[in-house]
Design a protein that fits this description.
four-stranded mixed β-sheet; 40% helix; 16 helices; alpha/beta; 15 strands; seven-stranded mixed β-sheet; 15% strand; Aspartate Aminotransferase, domain 2; 2 domains; Aspartate Aminotransferase, domain 1; 463 residues
Length: 463
């Protein structure tokens, strides 16, 4: 297969792909997927792969679900397109808003729709500025976020995560951003003077103290909110330490700062509950959702807002006469129909119950990989996890961050050759398979991944 992708006569002078080496893309054909069913996708040559990351952590119900396809087809025939805005909408959008509010982790939630997770997070900050500006809180513009997180690819949301080097590379403005550490327990624990390591409780307390210091240094009166993923997916699938969110929320409450939960990935069952906020005891003022909302069959995202947050927007609308914000594809009727059907399927098929029943098998499969010479450890949360790689005999931390290189890249490429698609983040292989995955498919995924790691180990030994 690799020979097919690196054929000497291949040249690409048109397509640009994100998260890709643009120079490599010009001379090496990308992996082209042509079909999919369940947890498997098939390339243009007919070879199958287990999609261990649900594409971009999004295809919750697997590929080619007939009910979702039929929902899209039915809406296409009824009304294929009509924008929701200017005091006009369509029935399925009204129904979806009511249904989403009913299952939201915020009581009496107000719902606005967008197209992508990036756009939802971007719009949420815009709405914060709008509401604050019309209720005597105009100075509260700054947003707290955690280094290593990912909250989107717009100019504004790129400023919310990643590294300083990434932001400098794109020339991203960060004047309204305040950064704190990404929780990474136990890897980031400090060694004590007596030789005993920092306890989990002490580590959590230190991060809460860091947050307090960052707020005081920036000026509490200038900060509107903190945004955080319940589970730090793009930082390498890092679960928060015990008591983390209650501790930081106590600090935020003290200064009147809101907490926004980015549930673009963790929403819709990934952590074993419908929302990651439920799993980790978070009381969010606002939540963003996408990906699993429609099982990614159609592009749609949602801003789930508390009544208090929405009340400030109402004040702005009184002054201006309207909310001067909309998008042609926001709450697209076909996307809304698919999202509505997705929620119905979650309830009808008891998807959350299945996730909880299959989690022990998933966790056991990850744990079983720890006997491999290249595996330094694993991280697990719900139906997600990461395999941490390290060369035999190596000491010190594994490579982290968004950059693809070293063992992570080698293992990623070897996994493709063995028929499993993973997400490399530094020297970790991140996985979040479709929620419908079965025990036999988990077994097969682990088998293919182990063979890929064997291939990398053989290459390291020879090299």
């Amino acid at each position: 297969m690799l020979e097919h992708r690196t054929a000497s006569n291949y040249q690409n002078d048109t397509l640009v792909l994100g998260f890709s080496d643009l120079n490599r893309l010009r001379s090496e054909r990308p992996l082209v997927l042509a079909g999919g069913r369940g947890v498997y996708v098939t390339d243009e040559r007919g070879r199958d792969y287990i999609e261990a990351v649900s594409s971009f952590y999004c295809v919750a119900l697997g590929y080619s679900d007939e009910e979702l396809i039929e929902a899209a087809t039915r809406q296409m025939r009824a009304l294929p397109m009509y924008p929701s805005g200017a005091h006009r909408t369509v029935p399925v959008v009204l129904e979806l808003a009511d249904k989403l509010a009913a299952i939201a982790p915020i009581a009496n939630a107000r719902i606005a729709f967008a197209t992508t997770g990036s756009e939802a997070n971007d719009s949420l900050l815009k709405f914060m500025w709008y509401g604050n500006g019309h209720t005597g809180r105009k100075a509260r513009r700054k947003i707290i976020s955690r280094r290593g997180s990912y909250h989107g690819g717009t100019a504004l949301t790129t400023g919310l995560g990643g590294s300083a080097a990434l932001q400098e590379s794109f020339g991203i403005p960060t004047v309204d951003h305040v950064y704190v550490s990404q929780p990474d327990w136990p890897a980031a624990a400090r060694a004590g003077e007596s030789g005993a390591g920092e306890t989990e409780a002490a580590y959590t307390a230190r991060l809460a103290a860091e947050l307090r210091s960052a707020i005081e240094n920036a000026g509490p009166e200038t900060i509107g909110a903190m945004i955080a993923e319940p589970l730090s997916v793009s930082a390498g699938m890092l679960p928060p330490p015990d008591g983390y969110f209650p501790a930081i929320q106590a600090v935020l409450d003290e200064f009147g700062i809101q907490l926004f939960a980015d549930e673009v990935v963790t929403g819709f069952g990934r952590t074993g509950n419908m929302w990651g906020s439920q799993t980790f005891g978070i009381r969010p003022d606002c939540v963003t959702s996408a990906k699993g909302l429609s099982s990614a069959y159609q592009p749609i995202s949602a801003l789930i807002m508390s009544p208090d947050f929405h009340d400030r927007m109402l004040e702005g609308s009184k002054v201006d006469g309207w909310l001067a914000h909309a998008g042609t594809y926001h709450a697209h009727p076909v996307a809304a129909a698919v999202a509505l059907k997705t929620i119905e399927i979650f309830e009808k098929r008891d998807i959350i119950g299945h996730v909880r029943r299959i989690m022990p098998t998933w966790h056991a499969a990850l744990d079983a990989l720890t006997d491999h010479p290249l595996v330094a450890g694993v991280r697990k949360c719900g139906l997600a996890g990461a395999v941490v790689l390290r060369k035999p005999g190596a000491t010190g931390p594994a490579e982290s961050g968004m950059k693809l290189g070293g063992l992570g890249r080698a293992a990623y490429e070897a996994a493709i050759e063995r028929g499993v698609l993973v997400r490399p983040i530094g020297d970790s292989l991140v996985m979040a398979p479709p929620l419908i995955i079965r025990e036999a498919e988990i077994t097969e995924l682990a088998h293919r991944l182990r063979r890929a790691l064997d291939d990398v180990l053989d290459a390291e030994t020879r090299g």
